[in-house]
Structure prediction request, 130 residues.
Amino acid sequence: MAKKNKRSNKAQTNNLSAITEHQETQSDKGFCHFEGDILVLNILGTPSAKRDVIGKAKGKQLKISVTAAPTRGKATDHMVAFLAREFAVKKSQIEVVFGRMNINKQVRITAPQKLPAVIARFLNANSGNK
Prediction:
């Protein structure tokens, strides 16, 4: 029985190592990266702004400001509609992974038809780092 537990512990350790490596790889990618045809975007949102705008990168997040107030997720809903226009996709192609009621968000955009300049520059600059 003791041998089985040792094997089980070793398997758990290997799984934990794989998860940790995956998380480190993801965090090394900056504020966005592609997973197949899905663009994963880490956002630092600013509600109640003067205008809807995609700003600059701040660390591992991209600053995005929207005019909607942060009331019951309305700013996030407005941000999704804004991003849908910016990426030329339907709102249903944007999934809020986490942060619906928070300024720190992650969204997944399926098959974006166009890329805003700041994202295109970042992806082009980091395309050789794979």
